[in-house]
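Hi V.,

You were right to ask for the full record rather than a summary. Here it is.
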Amino acid sequence: MKLNCFHTSSFRFAVIVFLVVLVSIELMAQESEIKRPDLQTTDSIFFGTTEKKKDDYKFGVEYRIQAGYLQNNQHSKQDSVSQLYLHGVRLGVTFDFLLPYRFSVQTGLLYSIAYGSSVQYWPGMDAEDIYAHDNYISHRMLQHRLVIPARVYYNIKLWKKLNLFFYTGPQVQIGLSENDYLVTHITDKTKEQLQLIGARTEPYERYGCKELFRTNIQMGLGGGLEWDAYRIEAGYDFGLNNIIRNQVIPNQQLSEWGWFVSFSYKFNQ
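Predicted structure:
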């Protein structure tokens, strides 16, 4: 009888221990759930989502129409050609070929028209006006060109549809016409001497008279901002080649640099 009581007591003790262990495990599990952060919830709160965001930049072509202001600077190292600043506008279409990692390559065709004026002084050839300051030629240039860019762009996403971008690369300018509607304020003697050395004293077209090469190669860099389909950008282009074709003096050089500000609109969304 005592043995039965012993077994009954042992059985009851085992059941009680088993229940205590189960309750302890359950409490520990609940405590662990409370203390352990929910990574999915945390990511959702602080980072918006736990899924890796997919870059929405993909292969394709973007078509844009562009218009803007430009300034060209024709500069001669020997001051043999009057330094000239031309102000104008350019407009045309561009094509952006989208690449991975937010790169793109841009080309297109733009037309530019620019006007500028300068004054070039010459020493008088007559005894009475050798020290005079009224021997000069007024140059009035009207320039028409086609521009073909070949730029590499890199885009940085700032906020929603706002992007910051930078670019670098060459562009080729093809001269259509460049007329010099010059006006002379010189004596006849000075005019004769200038004509002897090949200097122009009458209005002329600079490409047709073979004074300049039509091709001007430049290397540019710049950047800007883009919001949705709208883009504003600015850049500077450095002249790489000598555009003087008919050299009046030995090793005569003339290069053209320039900068621009433009606005463009993307057609395909």
